[in-house]
Amino acid sequence: MTKILVIEDEESVRENILDLLEAEDFETIAAPNGKIGVSIADNESPDLILCDLMMPEIDGYGVLAQLRENFTTSAIPFIFLTARAAKEDFRQGMELGADDYLTKPFTRTELLTAITTRLQRQAAIINNPISLADVKAYPKEMRIIENTLRRTIEEGKFREFQMYYQPIVDIKSGKMIAVESLVRWWSPKLGLVCPEELIPLAESTGLIIPLSDWILESVCKQTRNWLDNGLDALTSCVNISASQYIQPNFIHKVENLLSTYNLAPHYLELELTETTMMQDINKTIDILKKLKSIGINIAIDDFGTGNSSLIYLKQIPLNTLKIDNYFIHNLPEDNRKLAITKALIEMGHNLDLKVVAEGVENLGELRLLRHLKCDAMQGFLFTEPLPKPDFEQMLVSKQSLNI
To answer: Buried-most residue among 191, 261, 377, 382 (CB within 10 A)?
Structure first.
């Protein structure tokens, strides 16, 4: 029987998770704090650990760091349970070797899906080790994933990557006006590697550059294909990293792709996070001005959770401001989030920017965003990210949001 350790300091949350897991026939062990959790993990060797991030004395990061330093616990799949959804928090955990995050409040399905995915991947790693040298040198799962990713890209096996598409919808009309293109990695050895794991790993190893080049070309090629087949292709939004756009030939690459696939520049919108932009703000402004001069749209992604300075915001040549889903989640029930979201929308409009709300999940959130005059939304209320065949059906039927 699969044994799962739950490290959670809130008794009610801990008991609810234990009841759910036991109903699914998992063997469970519980720890009320990080110190006890580390001790139990050492003694019990669980098959998977669920751990709260914010705990007194030893927080989730501390628990994970101690487990990853111990040979006997270093490879146990580890999932954070957290109310913090900023990318900086994800990155810190991934650098320590976390396997996944579940943002509270999560559903029964989300919890069981995360557990099943991690257990299946662990079984794949055990049954199909990359090489004896890899395992001996660094037995942790993240090193195995890194080696697999490096080999996949260096050998040009880009067929393992797939593009998924999540529409962006005009709030007034309900019509699709753009689509965010997102990469998924289906490894024959590891199974599905989540984007929160793939992208930080690719960035930290420098593999983000060849991967991003493939993503950009795939998006341009697919847009051309939709146009050639008589579909109303939407502007494709693509996330780019600092290491990608500071490459000396980045602008030339973009121009070549537009020329190769005979695309007007307005079919492409490049998204950068606040943190990415601020790494070298003067260079960022210079590059983005050149991109915008050739007609490329620019968006600032996950706005509100990074470290951007409002002094520079008016200087950055933007088209779109995307409000992070943290501010949208439970918007009708949280007056502070409501005040911040209202201010962000008004600021965006005062800067002549289109404002998009990310992570919209219910009608209550949508109605408030309409009242606040937000321009567009994306999120599960309309659809989750979809594989190409499913998204193409939406394009063919001109599906819209019923509001």
So the answer is: 377
What is the sign of the dihedral through the CA atoms of 133, 138, 144 and 147? negative
> Which residues span the domain enclosing 22?
3-127
For the chain, counts of helices (H) and of strands (E): 18, 15
Are 142 and 97 spatial neighbours (Cβ–Cβ below 8 Å)?
yes
DSSP reduced 3-state for 152: helix
Q: In terms of domains, do 118 and 171 share one?
A: no
Q: Quickly count: other Cβ atoms within 10 Å of residue 335's Cβ.
A: 9
Give the pair of three-digit tokens for residue 12. 């009610």
Give the CATH number of the domain where residue 109 resides.
Answer: 3.40.50.2300
CATH code assigned at 184: 3.20.20.450
Same domain, 120 and 241: no
The structure's pTM equals 0.66
User: Do both 80 and 204 map to the same domain?
Assistant: no
CB atoms within 10 A of CB 126: 10
- How many whole angstroms separate alpha carbon 41 and alpha carbon 22? 19
Q: For tokens 């590891």, what's the residue? A: 190
364 in helix, strand or coil?
helix
| Tens digits of residue pLDDT in 98-157 | 778 888 888 888 899 889 888 877 766 555 444 434 333 433 466 778 888 888 988 888
For residue 126, the model assigns a pLDDT of 53
Q: Give the pLDDT confidence of 266-290 residue by residue, as tens digits.
A: 999 999 988 788 778 888 899 999 9
Say if residue 253's pLDDT is above 50. yes
255 and 347 co-located in one domain = yes
Is 402 a domain residue? Answer: no
